[in-house]
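Narrative progress, year one. The postdoctoral researcher (J.K.) led the effort to move from monomer predictions toward full complexes, under supervision of the PI. The following entry was the first complex the group processed end to end, covering 434 residues in total.
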Amino acid sequence: MSDPKLAASGLTGVEVHGMTRSAFILRGALAAGSVYGAATIGPFVGQALAMSGGDVDVVNFALTLEYLEADFYKKAQALGLSGTAMKLAKEFGDAESQHVDALTQTVKKLGGAPAKKPTFQFPIKDEQSFLMLAQTLEDTGVSAYNGAAPQIQSKEVLGAAGSIVQVEARHAAAIRLQRSQPPAPAAFDKTLQKPEVLKAVKPLIKA
Amino acid sequence: MAETRVQYEASGPSAIEDLARDPASRKRFLSMVGGAGGASAFALFLAACGSSRKKTTATTTSTTSAAKPGGGDLMIVNYALTLEYLETAFYKDVINSGLFKGAQLDTIKTFGDQEAQHVSALEAAVQKLGGTPAAKPKTKFPLKDANSVLQLAATVENLGAAAYLGQAGNIQSKEVLAAALSIHSVEARHASALNTLLGKDVQPDGAFAKPASMSEVLPKVKPFIVG
């Protein structure tokens, strides 16, 4: 019953607990930004920032994040990942694609037009950089859903968002364990508002 | 949204209505959430939720909700508090059992500490809503060996995550909803970590986590409540 991942997570716990979650996520975003520098604000970002209220907007915001995650895991699978990392990339990538489909349908049912899929660029070149960015993206995804959910009007849409965010949190914890990080770095997951999330993912959007 | 609506109603208010009609379940639940105060909150909760089946309840709903908004939230928060009491007691017993040491013990301590923080936050939320926090139940858990304890931990955490998800759509206050969500995803993280440790699927429901209603959750935790 000894698990080296959990063993290491116990050891690294103190260090990570000393950093606030926002600082952690921000650091991840800054790291991504510093690697790829050119942070062009894609048309979608401007559009998203101009949005105001309504479940269609919230769901389209979530859809954009799911496009990003689905594309990320797809590209990661071309990196030559090892057994466990590849298994996670495939399984999680498949889940994110299902989220994309479900949210696309939800936007249509709400009478809206689904957001277009942006073109993404990810600073990943090997398993380590993949897992690091995966952790940032999944943690940010959890905070983004948790921040947006209270604005949702429809009980059905809220239920759908809840069932997705739980899966994002499960992904985040599993990726964290794979990196020997504490799976739950705090007792309460931080919430992020849309502008903060868009700022964090901006470096990953090419157009 | 027709299909989704059916799904969430099946696991939401209608399940609670079922609970209300079942005297045994109701008594059990009320003893968990705290006697007479719980009873009135429970009635308010039902009223606040309204009924998808009977239009005659519509008037009652608006009247009662206006009389005391937050009654439904109070019930839900006390329900969540009861589950958190249970989880906190569980991890405390596991720590004291001596079955774990080293890094695994550290992880268990971390999870237990986070559950205790959830208890404090939910107690404060109940008071903020003008209610009385549910009484802490007396609990007893089967702690035989490390493996079965980890299995039980995974069961409890997966159930906890499903229980929060089952209530999200019933919460009226945005503030309470935000708090519940920030706890919900941490329960999911715990569940995922324990599933990983046990070699189980981290997303056992697939891409979409399934909610559990009160009437689904309560019978599963009942065996651990001794008074």
